[in-house]
Specification:
Distance between the termini: 46 Å
Helix content: 55-70%
Number of helices: 15
Oligomer: single chain
Strand content: under 5%
Largest sheet: none
Structural class: mainly alpha
Order of helices and strands: HHHHHHHHHHHHHHH
Shape: flat
Radius of gyration: 28 Å
């Protein structure tokens, strides 16, 4: 028997030893749904998350209101009318007016525009810095030690201290706030990218690209960084609410946006003296901050659940 098997001679096996596969078993072996890419699968998971979609809808609605609201309103964010000061919410001023007679609804929309702009611009700048620095540190071993020691030095000092010092030196402006937020916010992105590149740079497709003559920059930015997109998006998405909250905190301390410009934090700070007599002046900016934070955190949690492959296993 062994000689016949080695020679490739088929054995005589009776038909009774075989059983016909029933139709139900055949259908079970079929593909349940067509194959899809990682990005399409992540988007499908994100759309199936009701809280994430609700957060996205709220954020888009707030962004549209902050852009179009001040343009179509008859009032301006810095227009004063002493005759209408400290008016409670009414048909003419749905959020009321402040001590200078300025319309709070327009100022909340304008402050939301400033806060959202600072949050998203900070996220984009820190994403670029973190991806470049983290990718270089993870791919090129020679500079990894130097970059990581610089990061250790920066993280040894609280980030809020950097922000306060820069705001005191450079003054209260959007540019100084962006610089203050970009000093240390890129570190988390750089660490995530570095760890991902260290894990992926020894994979077979990287070796194949190197054998085919691909340059180091092409391997890094065309192969390693795109394959680290999920953790990068998750990390960068959490920068936005953190930057908005930090800006609001600085403005609340009185070292943020300079008057007559307004952010959500400055509106809360301006309403402190009127908190007991006219509490609505603080209520609406605080509600705008809270709802924005909830919406952004829902979006971030949805991105984490969609792009983190470990959660789907």
């Amino acid at each position: 028997m062994n000689d016949s098997l080695q020679a490739g001679v088929p054995m005589d096996i009776p038909d009774q030893m075989f059983e016909k596969l029933p139709p139900a078993r055949k259908e079970a072996e079929e593909t349940v749904r067509p194959s899809e890419s990682f990005l399409k699968s992540a988007l499908r998971k994100y759309r199936s998350n009701p809280f994430a979609m609700a957060g996205l809808v709220i954020l888009v609605l707030f962004a549209l209101l902050s852009l179009a609201g001040p343009l179509i309103s008859p009032y301006t964010y810095d227009g004063q009318n002493i005759a209408h000061q400290n008016q409670f919410p009414s048909a003419g001023h749905i959020f009321g007016t402040d001590k200078f007679g300025r319309d709070i609804f327009v100022r909340v929309l304008y402050g939301m525009r400033i806060s959202l702009t600072i949050g998203f611009v900070t996220a984009v700048i820190n994403c670029v810095l973190g991806v470049i620095i983290g990718g270089i540190a993870g791919y090129f071993g020679g500079v990894d030690m130097i970059i990581m020691r610089i990061i250790d030095v920066l993280t040894s000092v609280p980030s809020m201290l950097y922000m306060i010092l820069i705001m005191v030196i450079m003054g209260n402006s959007v540019r100084s706030i962006l610089l203050a937020l970009c000093i240390t916010y890129w570190i988390s992105t750089a660490r995530i990218v570095r760890s991902q590149v260290l894990t992926l740079k020894n994979q077979e497709y990287v070796l194949a690209a190197r054998v085919l003559g691909a340059s180091n920059s092409r391997i890094l930015f065309r192969h390693l960084i795109p394959n680290s997109l999920g953790p990068i998006l998750i990390t960068v998405s959490y920068i936005i609410p953190s930057a908005i909250f930090s800006e609001a905190f600085l403005s609340f301390l009185g070292i943020g946006i300079q008057a007559p410009m307004a952010s959500l934090g400055t509106l809360v700070n301006d309403a402190i003296p009127q908190m007991f007599g006219w509490p609505y002046q603080m209520l609406f900016p605080v509600m705008a901050i809270v709802i924005t934070m909830f919406a952004l955190n829902f979006i971030c949690d949805g991105l984490r659940d969609a792009f983190d492959t470990r959660l789907s296993q």
